[in-house]
TrEMBL record:
<dbReference type="GO" id="GO:0002161">
    <property type="term" value="F:aminoacyl-tRNA deacylase activity"/>
</dbReference>
<dbReference type="InterPro" id="IPR002301">
    <property type="entry name" value="Ile-tRNA-ligase"/>
</dbReference>
<feature type="binding site">
    <location>
        <position position="696"/>
    </location>
    <ligand>
        <name>ATP</name>
    </ligand>
</feature>
<dbReference type="Pfam" id="PF00133">
    <property type="entry name" value="tRNA-synt_1"/>
</dbReference>
<dbReference type="InterPro" id="IPR009008">
    <property type="entry name" value="Val/Leu/Ile-tRNA-synth_edit"/>
</dbReference>
<feature type="domain" description="Methionyl/Valyl/Leucyl/Isoleucyl-tRNA synthetase anticodon-binding">
    <location>
        <begin position="781"/>
        <end position="956"/>
    </location>
</feature>
<dbReference type="Pfam" id="PF19302">
    <property type="entry name" value="DUF5915"/>
</dbReference>
<keyword id="KW-0479">Metal-binding</keyword>
<keyword id="KW-0436">Ligase</keyword>
<dbReference type="InterPro" id="IPR023586">
    <property type="entry name" value="Ile-tRNA-ligase_type2"/>
</dbReference>
<dbReference type="GO" id="GO:0005737">
    <property type="term" value="C:cytoplasm"/>
</dbReference>
<dbReference type="InterPro" id="IPR013155">
    <property type="entry name" value="M/V/L/I-tRNA-synth_anticd-bd"/>
</dbReference>
<keyword id="KW-0547">Nucleotide-binding</keyword>
<keyword id="KW-0175">Coiled coil</keyword>
<dbReference type="GO" id="GO:0006428">
    <property type="term" value="P:isoleucyl-tRNA aminoacylation"/>
</dbReference>
<keyword id="KW-0648">Protein biosynthesis</keyword>
<dbReference type="GO" id="GO:0000049">
    <property type="term" value="F:tRNA binding"/>
</dbReference>
Length: 1171
RNA sequence: GGGCUUGUAGCUCAGGUGGUUAGAGCGCUACACUGAUAAUGUAGAGGUCCCUGGUUCGAGUCCAGGCAGGCCCA
């Protein structure tokens, strides 16, 4: 067998294409799962992408991360199923369809039927599936594309229903309300994107009030009353631009860390003496400098232009929390009582409170503000709700924008001008104005003024929008909050901070999960209710629905039962219908979407008709339900589900923290009292090279297809993983891929090519059981094998710890710095010289082992190139590896797998990852090789300084050593150093020689611990140490010194002694290491130098003449005394190097070339020797 | 506005538990090397370690407060 040889440069894109074809042809992905049958599983969940847009380069990033760990676990012998999936519901799809049809939500049901509309959504959502599948394959993401779960399929929806029913039965599903933008004029809620239409936010002038809320005196508020005049009432000031919400006030919010002051002053309208609380930073907004000194006594009888005031106390928001106050519009004034009133009218914390405007205290009406609602809910403050004629609770404003009749003197008033009143008419007074007047009269308004601000308006009616409570279905996640938090602590988050921080905080501030969406394309809420809401049913399966419809038909509420399917849906039956059917057309008989489900009416136990609650559910429920719904569980396949729950690993973008990561977690905790995943990686964004977000609009988006084609999938993946840790944002720069390609893959390719070239020449083949025994290997070989074992340990550790970046960097450093640039470079002549000796065989075997192990270690990150390398190295050679055929056929013995042998398999991805053979790790050897590298580097540096090129041999270098260990260590690598830097000997200089000039450096770390503040003086003294003192410290192990009149004893550890100079020598130092170079040139050395130059020039000539490495030649040089002397001494060396059978001199040479070096100019004749 | 996160050489990034002289690769300059050669070696230029305070004998590192970018949420 020959090792395949390739021309440079390798076409990495082609490698990807070729390997991909080979994988497909041989079903390698399938085998990577099937050969692990019966082994422990590693469960991975695919977060479903949406195929309604083209995939971008960031998807390559996210999917590379997923792929890496699945492949790694497979290499460990585990079975990793990867069921793909598609997220198919949701607003983005609806918006896209509307854009394409040129319609709005309003038109649905009018210009286009819901049926047609949903059909369009169904067609649109998978439009880019081909592209996605294509990218998936080309980037080497191994996921099962043939049997994905699809969220719009009836089985999937049915599973969601079953899960919802489980929650319903646990009492975790309830109907409530949320605050949403609402247009009373249009009678409809507005989505946030409708609110973001241009022109919706307009400047309006509204009447605003700073209202006074009277503090109730009790233990909590006592601090506001300390030493105060009993008769003077104390108020909290709060500003609002919507005075009509004041009658619905139930709380006041403060910022916990904001400073507040208590100010004594007067009510500017009634002149009553009062004390008020407001933010310290806003005092100047309401009080003048003059007022600070104005006399209180004179105010009442003055012109009231200057309001006197004095600060009487200062508090933080936290001090104020819990204080109670009197209701502004209470029952005594004819306003209704409400449920939970005893918990209302309290000061609560609000993280949205600022001191930018108003009073730094925010009036809270939970029915008319989203912040208000949330803060009130967290603090247990109720909303003010009143019952209508049917006893149904609602806010004080009805859906048309009027106060309900119970609102005393204001009952029936419009809160904004929704009835088209002429605003310029003399009798026109807004509700805001009337409320303000009433407050003024009662001494409860501190300031009333017109104020211009921006306010959102309905894009259709141009009327102001209200923030209004709208019906919603919720999952009571707060009921399991503690369990959510507890179980989250058992999840391994990568990076950890996302789990404790972003996710942890989110759980701490959890509110109930709002499931409702007023849309068309999504999973319908399976709840039917009677008109009055007193009876309802939650449907958990198609079978149940069918049975309920039968009842309705019997009760003559329905005419017939539209569900024809017998029994419940089954995934098995549907997929058996026909392999070639597209998912979109499967199960066309049954569609659980709108409008079909809306046309189903059921009958309640009391005989009332029940209608489906019109909402769809949040699409995040769809994706959070995938651990169950992908198997059609709980309808069927319990076993499948159990085997694949919870996941060992998931990975998505950090933006999924409150999305998929949360819904998976929430559902798992509520349904299974378990985590949904044990390890999770939240990866960052892919930005352009300048750190800007990529977007098609800016034209800085990178096309993943052209990138992969041009640079190959491996370099692309490697770059993304090696450049930044996945959870950091990646600044994507194509130059970076080029660099990875050149530096890492190029070097690895060169290393392989080098191996292949010579191994083929020698006809060498590695045989696992015919190797040079480890004990007989050279230092160099044992060193790189030791490094290799260390690398295996290290890389496994990084993969195990979900840190692929460090794994990639470790592999990269090993390949470029250790393997290529040291081991191979120093071994070069071992390969191209002479017969297949034991040393040469060892060189091949060592390099072979390194390359094959590298192919395994890199396989998760660069699967194509790893395969390429592995196949090239292994070829058809079945003698490699241990009992390989057996392993592939028999399935890996996971539990007993503990081999440092390389397993032979059809593909590198079917192998078992080697274990580090710790017996081969030799730290002392690694250390002394590093010494060799550093000494060589220093020597090169000295040559450079003295102008002595490496081809000129030198006699010796001197290395001062202070202990026997170093001496022994360097001694063992002397040959390597000599060869590398072209010197004859390494000599050691020990202390006793006395010629070294030494210097000391204080060891601050040690000294600091010992002397603390006196360190400076001690350090200065140490730097002044004389040569005698240094010597004494070295010899006796201590040195007594006096510093500032105090006696100290220094120990050797207190200082670091270095060689500074060696008089008369050329010296270089690197930390504690010093090298001196003997630059004396003897005649013999000069001759050898000449010989080497000659070899070099002849090699160039061979190369230029197009000779192959193995060609033999005859060389004739023109006579020249120095040359002849050199050839005299080094003839055989020269002949061997240049593969010359003869090396002769002739008086005159014509027709040849001329070799030029140093001062020489030599005519030469070079002929290929024919046998 | 809040939570999280990032900020170190022109670029991309390393810098356990604090230690005085902050590193690597790429890029740049110069020289060398040349049977792995689009590789390699040596030397050089290049730094307010985002800013301000604090703790400490000593802060890139710890604490507080800012600034700037990013994500999520309002």
């Amino acid at each position: 067998m020959n090792y395949p040889e390739f021309k440079q440069p390798l076409n990495y894109g082609q490698v990807g294409t070729d390997i991909l074809a080979w994988w497909k042809q041989n079903g390698i992905f399938e085998k990577s799962v099937s050969t692990r049958e019966g082994q422990p599983t590693f469960v991975f969940y695919e977060g479903p992408p949406s195929a309604n847009g083209a995939p971008g380069i960031h998807h390559v990033m996210a999917r590379t991360v997923k792929d890496i760990f699945c492949r790694y676990q497979t290499l460990l012998g585990k079975q990793v199923h990867r069921k793909g999936g598609w997220d198919t519901h949701g607003l983005p799809i609806e918006l896209q369809v509307e854009k394409e049809l040129g319609i709005t939500k309003e038109d649905i049901g009018k210009k286009i039927s819901i049926e047609e509309y949903n059909q369009r959504c169904r067609e649109t959502v998978m439009r880019f599936k081909q592209q996605w599948d294509d990218l998936t394959e080309k980037m080497g993401y191994w996921v099962d594309l043939d049997d994905p779960y699809i969220t719009f399929e009836p089985e999937y929806i049915e599973s969601c229903w079953a899960l919802l029913k489980k929650l319903y039965d646990k009492g975790l599903l309830y109907k409530g309300y949320t605050i949403q933008p609402y247009s009373p004029a249009a009678g409809t809620g507005l989505s946030s994107h409708e609110l973001n239409q241009p022109g919706t936010y307009r400047d309006v002038k509204d009447t605003t009030v700073v209202a006074q809320f009277k503090v109730k005196r009790d233990e909590k508020s006592e601090k506001l009353f300390a030493g105060a005049d009993e008769a003077v009432e104390t108020f909290i000031l709060a500003w609002t631009t919507t005075p009509w919400t004041l009658p619905a006030n139930t709380g006041l919010a403060v910022g916990k860390n904001i400073p507040y002051v208590l100010v004594r002053t007067f009510n500017p309208y009634t002149y009553a003496p009062i004390r008020v609380v407001l933010a310290k930073a806003l005092v100047s907004k309401y009080f003048t400098e003059k007022g600070a000194t104005a006399a209180f006594e004179e105010y009442v009888n003055s012109d009231h232009k200057v309001l006197p005031w004095r600060t009487e106390g200062e508090f933080t928001g936290a001090d104020l929390v819990g204080i109670r106050y009197e209701r502004l519009f209470g029952q005594e004034a004819g306003f209704p009582a409400f449920e939970g009133e005893e918990n209302a009218f309290r000061v609560i914390p609000g993280d949205f409170v600022t001191t930018e405007d108003g009073t730094g205290i925010v009036h809270i009406s939970p029915t008319f503000g989203a912040d208000d609602f949330r803060a009130a809910q967290l603090a247990g403050v109720p909303a003010l709700l009143v019952a209508d004629d049917e006893g149904k609770l609602g806010p004080i404003v009805d859906r048309t924008g009027r106060y309900v009749p119970q609102m005393g003197e204001f009952g029936g008033r419009w809160v904004k001008n929704y009835d088209g009143h002429d605003e310029s008419a003399a009798d026109y007074r807004t509700l805001d104005v009337d409320i303000s007047i009433r407050l003024k009269e009662r001494g409860r308004a501190f300031k009333v003024e017109k104020y211009e601000h921006t306010y959102p308006h309905c894009w259709r009616t141009d009327k102001p929008v209200l923030y209004y409570p709208l019906d919603s279905w919720f999952i009571k996640t707060t009921a399991v909050k503690d369990r959510l938090i507890e179980l989250n602590k058992t999840i391994n988050w990568q990076p950890e901070s996302t789990g404790t921080g972003r996710f942890g905080n989110w759980l701490e501030n959890l509110v109930d999960w709002n499931l409702s969406r007023s849309r068309y394309w999504g999973t319908p809420l399976p709840i039917w209710r009677t008109q009055d809401g007193t009876e309802e049913i939650c449907i958990g399966s198609v079978e149940q629905l069918k049975a309920e419809i039968d009842k309705a038909v019997a009760a003559e509420i329905m005419t017939h039962n539209p569900i024809k399917v017998s029994g419940s849906l089954s995934l098995v039956s549907s997929s058996q219908e026909g392999e070639d059917q597209q998912p979109a057309t499967r199960n066309q008989k049954l569609d659980l979407h709108r409008p079909y489900v809306d046309d189903i009416f059921l009958v309640s136990p009391s005989g009332q008709p029940m209608y489906r609650e019109p909402d769809l559910i949040d699409v995040w429920f769809d994706s959070g339900a995938m651990p169950y719904a992908q198997w059609h569980y709980p309808i069927e396949n319990e076993g499948q589900f159990r085997k694949n729950f919870p996941a060992d690993f998931i990975a998505e973008g950090v933006d999924q923290t409150r999305g998929w990561f949360f819904t998976l977690h929430a559902l798992a905790v509520m349904l299974e009292d378990s985590v949904a995943y044990k390890n999770v990686m939240a990866n960052g964004l892919v930005l352009d090279k300048n750190g800007n977000k990529m977007s098609k609009r800016l034209g800085n988006a990178i096309d993943p297809f052209t990138t992969i084609q041009q640079y190959g999938p491996d370099a692309t993946r490697w770059y993304m993983i090696a450049n930044a840790q996945p959870w950091d944002n990646l600044k994507f720069d194509l130059n970076g891929i080029t660099e990875v390609q050149r530096r890492f893959f190029g070097t690895l390719f060169n290393t392989y090519s080098f191996y292949a070239l010579y191994a083929n020449l020698d006809g060498f083949q590695a045989r696992e059981f015919d190797r040079v025994p480890y004990a007989e290997l050279s230092e160099l070989d044992r060193w790189i094998l030791s490094k290799l074992q260390s690398l295996i340990q290290e890389v496994r550790g990084y993969y195990d710890g979900y840190d692929p970046t460090k794994a990639a960097r470790a592999i990269q450093d090993f390949v470029t710095d250790q393997l290529s640039n040291w081991h191979v470079r120093l071994s070069r002549r071992r390969f191209w010289k002479g017969e297949l000796t034991q040393d040469k065989k060892a060189a091949y075997e060592t390099l072979q082992e390194c390359l094959v192990v590298i192919s395994q270690l890199m396989a998760p990150i660069a699967p194509f190139f790893a395969e390429w390398l592995y196949q090239n190295m292994m070829g058809e050679n079945d003698e490699l590896g241990m009992m390989n055929a057996e392993l592939t056929a028999q399935k890996p013995q996971f539990s007993s797998h503990n081999s440092s042998f390389i397993t032979r398999a059809e593909s590198v991805h079917l192998t078992l990852l080697v274990q580090a053979d710790e017996a081969r790790i030799d730290k002392a050897l690694e250390e002394r090789m590093e010494l060799a590298q550093r000494i060589s580097s220093l020597t090169h540096s000295l040559r450079k300084k003295s102008g002595l090129k490496v081809r000129q041999p030198l006699q010796r270098i001197l290395v001062p050593v202070f202990n026997d260990t170093t001496r022994e260590q360097v001694g063992k690598v002397e040959d390597l150093i000599c060869a590398e830097v072209n010197v004859k000997h390494v000599e050691f200089l020990d202390d006793t020689s006395g010629v070294l000039v030494k210097s000391v450096k204080p060891n601050f770390k040690r000294l600091g611990q010992q002397y603390g503040a006196k360190l400076k003086a001690v350090g200065a003294r140490i730097q002044q140490m004389s040569a005698e003192e240094i010597s004494q410290l070295e010899k006796t192990g201590q040195l007594a010194v006096e510093i500032d009149g105090e006696a100290y004893t220094l120990a050797p550890d207190d200082v670091e002694i270095r060689t500074q100079d060696l008089p008369g020598w050329l010296v270089a130092t690197d930390g504690p290491l010093t090298v001196a170079l003997d630059v004396t040139l003897t005649d013999e050395l000069r001759q050898e130098g000449v010989a080497r130059e000659l070899v070099n020039r002849l090699q160039n000539l061979r190369k230029d003449s197009g000779l192959e490495v193995q060609d033999k030649v005859r060389v004739t040089l023109q006579q020249q005394p120095e040359l002849e002397a050199a050839v005299q001494s080094f003839g055989s060396y020269i002949r061997e190097e240049v593969q010359a059978l003869a090396l002769d001199f002739a008086p005159e040479i014509s027709g040849g070339s001329v070799l030029e070096f140093d001062e020489f100019s030599v005519p030469v004749l070079l002929n290929v020797a024919t046998a």
